[in-house]
Amino acid sequence: MAYLMNQTQKPIQNLLKNFSLGTLSLGANRNGQDSSGLTRMFILKKNGMEYVGQLRISPEDPIVKVEIFNGNYFGEFKQPEVAVLENLTQKVLSKVKKEKEISDIVKALIKDFMECKKLEDTEAEVIEPKSQEEERDIEAMFDRLNREYFNGKINATVRWGRDVKTQNKSGFRYGSYDENKKLIRLHPRLKQSLVPIYVLEFTLYHEMCHQFAPSYKRNGSWQSHHPEFKKKEKEYKNFKDARNWEKNNWHKLLLPANEELEAVKN
Ligand SMILES: [Zn+2]
Hints:
The chain has 266 residues and is an alpha+beta fold. The chain contains nine helices and ten strands. The chain has helices spanning 2-8, 81-97, 104-120, 132-135, 138-150, 197-212, 227-233, 239-249, 261-264, and strands at residues 23-26, 33-34, 37-46, 49-57, 64-68, 157-160, 175-178, 183-186, 216-218, 221-223. The strands form three sheets. Strands 1, 2, 3, 4 and 5 form a five-stranded antiparallel sheet that branches. A three-stranded mixed sheet has the order 6-8-7, covered by helices on one side. A two-stranded antiparallel sheet has the order 9-10. Strand 4 (49-57) and strand 5 (64-68) form a beta hairpin. The longest helix has 17 residues, at 81-97. Mean pLDDT is 81; it is low at 1-10, 122-130 and 259-266. Zinc ion (ZN) is lined by residues 206, 210, 224-225.
């Protein structure tokens, strides 16, 4: 039983590590701020929907209160509402904290609140404000690359592959292209923030090049990364950086996203 407890007692934040809470924009500072704190409305855009919420920071308990007025926001997540709310609170606060015009009182309140949180949860982690969901929109990425490098001539579907919950032993396959189905699959571990966007983009670009410069048979064997292919591949603007990153970091992708080594050992 103790073993099981350790497995499930992960900090709540970690449940949402690779999750997008939506794109956050803070409303204007309408009520101003005074010794009683600060009240701000905000909007979250997620999956094409807008959700309205409010942040209240005050010296009373609770110091920080974040609410979402459209309850169906929480329906967008598999995680418990409390975990979503906790992460959202971190996200909203980290954005407010960066504003120049917030008063010292509010700053001190935020600091108090954050420190309490840290004590509660030593691994507390602030989710980066940039929406990964939008940055890693592979369909939009496909369209952009198609326009920029192929005159819109590549005709393929792009999809995230399914992750397997095991450790890869031999190597990591970033993506694949199925010529018959005209289907590009990208490895879902490329969604992680540790992977630079240009590496994801290069993976997609590489697979698109397979349609541009198809495989052929020479001396009885199939050539897919032939000279014509490589020439096209090098046109990608971050080619060298992407290759370097792959060379130095591929081993980080051998584990399923978010899993610790113990979790996959049998
Ligand atoms: Zn290839």
